[in-house]
UniProtKB/TrEMBL annotation:
Domain LysM: 233-278
Highest taxon, organism lineage: Bacteria
PROSITE patterns listed in its UniProt record: G5, LYSM
PANTHER family, A to Z: MUREIN HYDROLASE ACTIVATOR ENVC (PTHR21666:SF270), PEPTIDASE-RELATED (PTHR21666)
Protein name: M23 family metallopeptidase
Keywords: Signal
Residue ranges of domain G5 in the record: 285-365
Length: 492
């Protein structure tokens, strides 16, 4: 039994050894911690975060601030009128640690190279579309007001805006006019009163950061508003237009036009009426001006026609001249971006009644067939030359000169065949008497009839003259029967 004792001791010691090891390890740990507390120092570091991302640790918070301030200061030289700041969100969080470690150079370099300087600005949006960024809300509002003065007088706009603010109104009413000394009921002719100025869409402003170079001046903002926002529209090709022409019309480069129309190439031949996609611009917002105006306007006179058999058909006389009337009209107008979109009458008052025009219209029918017996075609006068040989050639007509009046008359009823200038005849009229006879009247100073017109025997057709090959003022008169030249004497 005594020989098993060492084994029993070993069995007992197996439970004691782990406890001894734990105590030894704890002693070593406590000794090490105490030693570290004695040998190390408790220091302060700063964690630098940019937009939530940990960049590194530094021991000098002010140096990091100086870097940011320097970047802003350098930019300020170019944008002195703007409020500048670092564009990113930078957080510097302190922490106390034993044996602090840090890398100032790494963090400084990152901040120098990656931080941006932006302007604290106000963004203007109209109908949800961005117009641009401005120095502040006041600058944005001034730009919008300046744009509106393209369509309404600046003084009227200021007065109207003040009235709206004074009355705390979103819409202006006819009871609160621009001109306090007038009401719409006492407007005189030509007077205009603006009753409202509004915008067709909602305008909103929000504070945002943006690149300083992107902040618009008042002049630039007005230009953006005037140009409008781009929209894709369709252009129909007109005769003679080329791709270059169409691109220029819509302020596009040729490549931009081709990108909008992928089926086209620079060498493509266009067809009239072909539809191409282009970019046009439409206003960000319409300036809606409402006005009331009083104007003197004319009232058209009516025309009354009276038939009379004392005048030939086709003739008419004015028995009474018409006169326009006048009225005072009070209108309400709506004008969109300078273009009148509606005009409604509020009331009107006649100040002068119109006078009817009375026309007497002839109903007497002139027979187009001649009687066969000719009347003398002039007012008096004598035969200065007859039909026959003269100066070695045939003289086809009878010349009548020395009348008491230069009026030339139709020798018989008939239809005007021609009334025109004809070489040696000068101004010449030919009448077909619809009975086989034709008469010619030449050398006229003027013509009073036209082809196709029916004339009556004795009716004035022209005035005696000396046009064409003529030795003086006279009428050259020719008569034909079934196409054969006749001597006029035999028919008087």
């Amino acid at each position: 039994m005594a020989r098993r004792k060492p084994l029993d001791d070993l069995h007992r010691n197996r439970h004691i050894l782990p406890k001894i090891a734990i105590m030894i390890g704890l002693g070593i740990f406590l000794f090490g911690t105490a030693a570290q507390a004695e040998e190390g120092s408790l220091g302060k570091i700063f964690h630098v975060y940019v937009d939530g991302e940990h960049i590194g640790k530094v021991n000098d918070k002010q140096a990091m601030k100086d870097i940011m301030e320097s970047k802003v200061k350098n930019k300020k030289a170019d944008f002195n009128n703007l409020s500048l700041t670092i564009g990113e969100e930078v957080n510097i969080v302190p922490e106390r640690v034993f044996d602090p470690s840090y890398d100032n150079q790494k963090v400084s370099t990152y901040l120098q190279e990656n931080l941006s300087v932006q302007a604290e600005a106000v963004k203007m949006e109209i109908g949800g579309k961005s117009v641009g960024y401005f120095q502040n809300k006041k600058a944005a509002e001034q730009t919008l007001n300046a744009y509106q003065t393209n369509f309404v007088d600046e003084q009227d706009l200021e007065t109207l805006t003040a009235k709206k603010q004074e009355n705390d109104m979103t819409d202006y009413t006819r009871a609160n006019l621009v001109n306090d000394k007038q009401t719409t009921d006492h407007l005189s002719a030509g007077d205009t009163i603006i009753t409202d100025v509004s915008l067709s869409d909602k305008v909103s402003f929000s504070e945002q950061k943006t690149a300083p170079s992107g902040v618009l001046t008042k002049k630039q903002g007005i230009s953006v508003l005037e140009k409008g926002t781009p929209v894709e529209t369709v252009h129909k090709v007109n005769e003679g237009e080329t791709l270059v022409d169409i691109a220029k019309q819509h302020d596009l480069t040729l490549d931009e036009l081709l990108n909008l129309n992928e089926e086209l190439k620079k060498s493509s031949v266009l067809q009239i009426g072909q539809k191409l996609y282009v970019t046009d611009y439409q206003p960000f917002v319409d300036v809606i001006v409402k006005k009331e105006i009083k104007e003197k306007t004319s009232i058209d006179y009516k025309t009354k026609t009276i038939e009379s058999d004392n005048l030939y058909k086709g003739e008419e006389n004015v028995k009474q001249q018409g006169e326009e009337g006048q009225k005072m009209v009070h209108y309400s107008l709506t004008i969109n971006n300078g273009n009148e979109s509606s005009r409604n009458i509020i009331n009107e008052k006649t100040t002068k009644e119109p006078v009817k025009k009375i026309i007497v219209k002839g109903t007497k029918v002139v027979p187009s067939r001649g009687t066969g017996n000719l009347n003398w075609p002039a007012v008096g006068g004598y035969i200065s030359s007859n039909v026959g040989m003269r100066w070695g050639s045939m003289h086809k007509g009878m010349d009548i000169a020395g009348p008491s009046s230069r009026t030339i008359k139709a020798a018989d009823n008939g239809t005007i065949v021609s009334a025109e200038r004809s070489s040696g005849y000068g101004n010449k009229i030919t009448i077909d008497h619809n009975n086989g006879m034709r008469t010619i009247y030449a050398h006229l100073a003027s013509i009073n009839v036209s082809p196709g017109q029916t004339v009556e025997k004795g009716q004035k057709i022209g005035v005696m003259g000396a046009t064409g090959d003529s030795t003086g003022i006279h009428l050259h008169f020719e008569v034909y029967q079934n196409g054969s030249l006749q001597h006029p004497k035999k028919y008087f």
